[in-house]
Design goal:
Blueprint: H1 3-12, H2 16-24, H3 37-47, H4 51-59, H5 63-72, H6 80-88, H7 93-102, H8 110-117, H9 123-139, H10 145-157, H11 164-178, H12 182-196, H13 201-214, H14 217-225
Protein name: DNA alkylation repair protein
Organism: Candidatus Gottesmanbacteria bacterium CG1_02_37_22
Length: 227
């Protein structure tokens, strides 16, 4: 399938009602077709990995085409320049999270970009830093505890950002680290208690929400099974 054929296929599944529903959840309705993620994943499976096609889909600027691009891109073909171009084009939290979870967290630049983007001012670029931490913690079971412990200082440093899509991603990253194993759970709780002392509405919310889950019975049961 070429790019034009795929766009036609996406438009077949478009839904104005779905776009209105997505908008209610804070998703940018601009250039959005309203195609469900399961449909995109099924299409991605049919297409397979394709670097050139991924770039073409991204260049259309269509919301779902960009998510699909992140699903079919070849991890080893991604360059820093491409990551910077794509992150600069994020205009919605779902495109940000899909790109980070489908692609960015599997590239060789993941650690570098986590550190760099956590210092950026743009809301979705900064969110991408913490979305990558969250997805990296969820996906890479071989990663060492030390890799995540170093991210906790970044989480603490950015816990005062009051912007909705940043603070939610900071909280998400903290919780995902704390659910990996007993050691990281203790470290995440420790940093949450430090964040709790920061005089910031955002920091207090991040801390209380994270502690509620990390100290909860469901997480305790999960971690005990991993012993």
């Amino acid at each position: 399938m070429d790019c034009d054929h795929i766009i036609k296929e996406l438009k077949k599944h478009s839904s104005k009602e779905s776009v209105r529903g997505m908008e209610r959840f804070g998703i940018n309705p601009s250039r959005t077709l309203g195609v469900a993620i399961p449909i995109l994943r099924k299409l991605a499976k049919q297409i397979g990995r394709n670097h050139d096609l991924s770039l073409q889909l991204w260049s259309t600027g269509i919301h779902e085409a960009r998510i699909l691009a992140s699903m079919i891109e070849e991890y080893d073909m991604v360059t820093e320049r491409q990551m910077e171009e794509w992150v600069g084009g994020f205009d919605s939290w779902d495109v940000c999270d899909q790109c980070c979870g489908n692609l960015f967290d599997k590239t060789k630049f993941v650690h570098k970009k986590i550190h760099e983007w956590s210092k950026r001012k743009e809301e979705y670029v900064k969110r991408a830093s913490f979305a990558m931490i969250a997805w990296f913690a969820f996906h890479d079971r071989r990663a060492k505890d030390t890799e995540f412990i170093q991210f906790l200082s970044i989480i603490k440093a950015c816990s005062t950002d009051e912007r909705k899509y940043v603070k939610k991603a900071v909280n998400w990253a903290l919780r995902q680290i704390g659910k990996r194993n007993i050691i990281l759970n203790k470290e995440a709780i420790r940093i949450s208690l430090e964040i709790q002392k920061i005089p910031s509405t955002s920091a207090r919310w991040i801390s209380s929400d994270a502690l509620r889950e990390l100290r909860g019975e469901a997480v305790k049961r999960k971690l005990n099974k991993l012993r």
